[in-house]
Structure formats: C-alpha cells, structure tokens
Amino acid sequence: MNARPWLIVMLGGMSGGRLEEQLRSALEASALDALEVALATGAYERGLLIADRPPVLEVPPSIEVDVDAPGAPFEFGTRLADAIRERDAAAVVYLGGGSAPLLAGADFEALAAALDTPDPRGVSNNFYSADLFGVRPAAALGQLTPRPTKDNGVPRRLRDECGIEFVELPRSLATQTNLDTPVDLAALALSGRGGPRLRRALADVPVLPRLGEAARLFTDRHAEVLVAGRVSSRAWQYLERETACRVRLLAEERGMSAAGRETDGSARSLLGMLLAEAGSQRFFSELLPDLGGAAFLDIRPALVQLGLHPSRADRFAADLGLASEITDAGLRSLVEAANAAPVPVVLGGHSLVAGGLMLLNDWAWEQRDGVRRAASVPV
C-alpha cells in the first residue's frame, strides 16, 4: 500500500485594514474547517497548517501548525518544498487557505485516491490555474527551478519539468469556489454554505442587496446578464447550460497575472476602453443598461487598461461598493458610477466570474425551487 499523503494548507499574505483582516479571519476559519474535514476521512497521514502568524482560532490537536520565522523572507515554492522535505512526505495535497470552503470528505478522499499509485501522478482542480493540487512523489516540488512564487502554475510546471501527468477533479461548485476578495465572502454568506468556523466568521460580512438582485436574473428566461473579465470557456459553458437567462459575455485577459501583464501594465481590456471612451458615469448609467439587466464585472483588467493602480484595500472596498473608503480618485469615481447604475452591478476579481458565478446561480435556483444542490455535484 502506498503511503498516505500529507495535507498541507498555506495561510498568509493577508493583513492590513479592516476588509483585509476580515478576509484573513475567514481564510483561517476555512483552512481549519478543511483540515478537520479531510483528516476525519482517514485518507491522510497528517495535516499541516503553514501560517505567517499564529492562528487566532483554537487549533484541533490533530493539526500541526508551522509559523513562519519572524522577519524571514517568504518564497512559496521554497517554503512548501522545505516543509515536505522536513516531514519526509511521500505524497502531498496542497491547499491555499481559501481554496476549499466547500470541499466535503468525499472530495478529500478523491484527492488522496488520485495519488494512490506507485507511479508519479498529480491531481488538481484546474490544471492551468490551480488553487489546490496533489502530487506523488512530493519531492518533485523541490526539483522545480526556479522555485514557484505562487500556486497557480505548479501543476503545469510539474508536468513540463518533471514529466508528471495530472488529472483534474470533476468541475463542481466545491472544486471551483475560492475565497480571494470580500465579495467572495459576501456571496458565500448569501448562500449560507461553508463549514462551522467559516459560517461564524461570515456572520459579520455585510449583506450586499445587489448580489441577490443580480443573481436572481439567472433564473429568468426573459433576462439578459452581462459577464465580463477573465472568464474561462468552461465558465461560459456552465452559464449556457445552468442558467435560464441570456448571457452577454466579454472574455478578456485570461492568465493576465500569471503572464505578468498586470504588473507591467501591458494588459488590454475592451471594458476599460469603453469606460475610458464614454466615462464611468455615462457607461454605467446609459451604455451598460442596454447590455443587460445586471452585470458581473471582473474589473481588474479594466483597471490596468485605465492606468489605475489602487491598493489592495481600495480594490476590496471597490468590490463591496464602499466608494467612501477608496483613496484612489479614479477608482472611487468608477465605483460611485457603478453604485448609481439603474441595474445591479457586481464588481470583483477573477473568482467572481469563476466559482462565484456558480455559487450565486445555485443560490438563485435554490431560492426559486427550494432545492439545494450538493456542492460536489459535477457541472
């Protein structure tokens, strides 16, 4: 029998103002919920939480905590490879802190089962942009040169550099939901889903009426909804198959962050061009209502196009429509115009137009039909 994999969850890089700390609290709660659910299956050797500071919540004794050394530089790939080497792990399943808020025991068993082979094997929720992945042998992560700086591209590099073939988990609400920004928390709070710690953390998340107003149109065959941003072909297929409304889709700048097009300013956005040409006020008050009765906008590519470089705190405030808390004048003006639009406009990042759409669509149908679909059902 093959050695069971270790489950390693990383939690860090989220601190600062009120909204950042709120997200950090939710990420910690989600990470501990996920570890507890996974370890209860018996499919894992041990569970390890790697964190940049000690957890606030009580940690079950079955979970090992490894806190970063104060002041030490952090490099994702090195930290993960060192943790694997120090524990002599034969196989590993890795999760980002917010990548598994809806995974159930059966999902964690499937991750471990995919690695129950004597041959090299990998598994992920998304091969080209992974939030979670597993690999046997775990030592292969230490062979990547240079070491990866983030998790998204690890499966592709393990295939290309180490010859490890990967399988993808079935696409489902559980495998595609990730917590990246406060609007993801708001969507999850609206849905009423999540583990016990996470649901308690979500109790303080403000209600966003526009979320429900926009999501309900998914069930209306007479409605049209605009979705724009880094939308994948699979997300489009999901919307075509699982919603009753017409969907107007503007897909642009897939892989923007991984390719460095956000950092160097080379990203190009048609949405950003429209905003620049018409002005935020006219775009949201006149043009957008002609394109749909609601809009879900991954605004990050447009911000690059507009030459705006707001802080993370400003981006988070923008996602929640908190214009008064935004210091960047250009972004504040854009959000004020979006708030004043005659149709509900939901702003966010990539996760909004990926798992966020699935979560909100499921909620809308549940409100209409009274039936909650299990998060692990393939879609």
Draw up the topology in text.
Elements: E1 6-11, H1 18-40, E2 47-51, E3 63-67, H2 76-86, E4 92-96, H3 105-114, E5 121-124, E6 132-136, H4 154-162, E7 166-168, H5 173-176, H6 182-191, H7 196-202, H8 209-216, E8 224-229, H9 233-242, E9 246-251, H10 270-278, H11 280-291, E10 294-298, H12 300-305, H13 312-319, H14 329-339, E11 345-348, H15 355-369
Parallel strand pairs: 1-2, 1-4, 2-3, 5-7, 8-9, 8-10, 10-11
Antiparallel strand pairs: 4-6, 5-6
Helix pairs in contact: 1-7, 6-15, 8-15, 9-15, 10-11, 11-14
Q: How many discrete structural domains?
A: 2
Mean pLDDT: 96
Given the helix and strand composition, which structural class is it?
Answer: alpha/beta
- Range of strand content: 5-15%
Amount of helix: 40-55%
Largest sheet, strands/sense/barrel: 7 strands, mixed
Alpha carbon gap, first and last residue: 33 Å
H and E string = EHEEHEHEEHEHHHHEHEHHEHHHEH
Instruction: State the shape.
Output: globular
Cα-atom Rg, whole angstroms? 21 Å
Number of helices: 15
Spatial ordering of strands, largest sheet: 3-2-1-4-6-5-7
According to DSSP, the number of beta strands is 11
Low-confidence stretches: none
Question: Would you write up a description of this structure?
Answer:
This protein is α/β, with parallel strands linked by helices and about 375 residues long. It has 2 domains: about 5-170, Alpha-Beta Complex (Spore Coat Polysaccharide Biosynthesis Protein SpsA, Chain A), CATH 3.90.550.10; about 175-370, no CATH class. It is built from 15 helices and 11 strands. The protein has a 7-stranded mixed sheet with strand order 3-2-1-4-6-5-7, sandwiched between helices. It has a 4-stranded parallel sheet with strand order 9-8-10-11, with helices on both faces. Helix 6 (about 180-190) packs parallel to helix 15 and helix 11 runs parallel beside helix 14 (about 330-340). The longest helix has 23 residues, at about 20-40. The protein is globular. The two termini are about 35 Å apart.
